């Protein structure tokens, strides 16, 4: 990591910008990044407006990417200190398609109630929309709604006990209390086993087939990290990347930009069996996954050996407390788990749930909390 005050090379700054765009939901591929570097080299690296136009022409795949590109460009190249902030000062007022904003010409309580009802209806509809189909304005609205998710780790009982108002009788404490009163009967002291949060491990698939859900999954992982101290986050694709430190930023936008700088294989291939083996060899078997709730976010498109994936899932099931698989296509009509990755993993999964909308993510939080 560069020391404070270190002058960065132009290519490093530009490539960091492309990673930030990818983390913000713009599908930036390696070819587009290379084209962006060539375009800025031809137009001149000292011309900010030329770099802006070069990026819009080479990095944006369609009109839906332009608004997010403008936000990330301004945050990245105008930031004066620290990581760039891409969150707007207020949530955009663009209405969700099909639900026009309430008319503001009228005055009085009825108009206010109608406006509040319309906003509530819009938010509720947005909660059930597939996040991969949202435009930039709708994604900005949805980003604010992630703060409503209650992501908490399940509790496990420990060997140590604590005083409690009910439970088993604590004979030694009760006897000592009676002796202090010279043998007179004393209040019965009861106790129960202490409880502490169980570790939660999140494995996020960042391959090309999951690119439309990457931003939402990072925001969900951020909710788990900031609300608990026993949460670990990894990304899986062509390689395994430990992402917990990047997720510790309190600001979700800063966390996502930091994740973009950390993960090297956005929108690549999927080798779940190989990356899961690396996780278990290096982290899981040594204690991180032992007794933990392991949540895998993936659509199951495995390009590697499905037999290897099945063996590693069986291995994971033996050491983890519970294995949850979240598939964005699980909640869609007509879906069948026929992909070779899902077919290989299903026998070793405790919970197979949907993960395509904010409402589905809320259900994921509930499944984890009661695991």
From TrEMBL:
CDD domains: vWFA. It comes from the Bacteria. Residues 197-363 form the VWFA domain. Residues 87-112 are annotated as: Disordered. InterPro entries: UCP010256, Uncharacterised_CoxE, VWF_A, vWFA_dom_sf. SMART domains: VWA. Pfam families: VWA_CoxE (PF05762). This is Carbon monoxide oxidation accessory protein CoxE. It comes from uncultured Nocardioides sp. The lineage of its organism: Bacteria, Bacillati, Actinomycetota, Actinomycetes, Propionibacteriales.
């Amino acid at each position: 990591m560069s020391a404070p005050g270190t002058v960065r090379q132009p290519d490093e700054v530009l490539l960091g910008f492309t990673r930030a765009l990818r983390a913000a939901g713009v599908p930036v591929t390696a070819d587009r990044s290379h084209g962006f570097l060539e375009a800025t080299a031809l137009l001149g690296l000292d011309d900010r407006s030329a770099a802006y136009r070069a990026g819009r022409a080479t990095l944006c795949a369609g009109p839906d990417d332009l608004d997010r590109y403008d936000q990330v460009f301004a945050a990245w190249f105008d930031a004066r200190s620290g990581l760039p902030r891409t969150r707007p000062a207020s949530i955009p007022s663009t209405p969700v398609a099909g639900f026009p904003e309430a008319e503001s010409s009228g005055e009085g309580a009825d108009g206010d109630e109608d406006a509040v009802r319309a906003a509530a209806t819009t938010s509720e509809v947005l909660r059930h929309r597939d996040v991969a189909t949202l435009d930039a304005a709708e994604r900005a609205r949805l980003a604010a709604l992630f703060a409503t998710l209650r992501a908490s780790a399940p509790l496990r009982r420990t060997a140590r006990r604590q005083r409690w108002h009910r439970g088993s009788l604590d004979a030694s404490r009760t006897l000592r209390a009676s002796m202090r009163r010279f043998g007179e009967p004393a209040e019965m002291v009861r106790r129960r086993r202490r409880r502490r949060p169980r570790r939660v491990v999140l494995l996020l698939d960042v391959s090309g087939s999951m690119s439309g859900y990457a931003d939402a999954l990072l925001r969900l992982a951020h909710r788990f990290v900031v609300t608990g101290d026993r949460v670990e986050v990894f990304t899986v694709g062509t390689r395994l990347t430990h992402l917990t430190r990047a997720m510790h930023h309190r600001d979700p936008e800063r966390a996502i930009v930091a994740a973009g700088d950390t993960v090297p294989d956005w929108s690549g291939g999927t080798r779940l069996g190989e990356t899961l083996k690396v996780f278990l060899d290096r982290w899981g078997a040594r204690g991180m996954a032992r007794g933990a709730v392991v949540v895998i976010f993936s659509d199951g498109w495995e390009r590697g050996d499905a037999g290897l994936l099945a063996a590693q899932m069986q291995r994971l099931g033996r050491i983890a407390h519970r294995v949850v698989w979240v598939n964005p296509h699980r909640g869609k009509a007509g879906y069948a788990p026929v992909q070779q990755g899902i077919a290989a993993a299903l026998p070793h999964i405790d919970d197979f749930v949907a993960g395509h909308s904010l409402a589905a993510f809320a259900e994921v939080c509930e499944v984890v909390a009661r695991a």
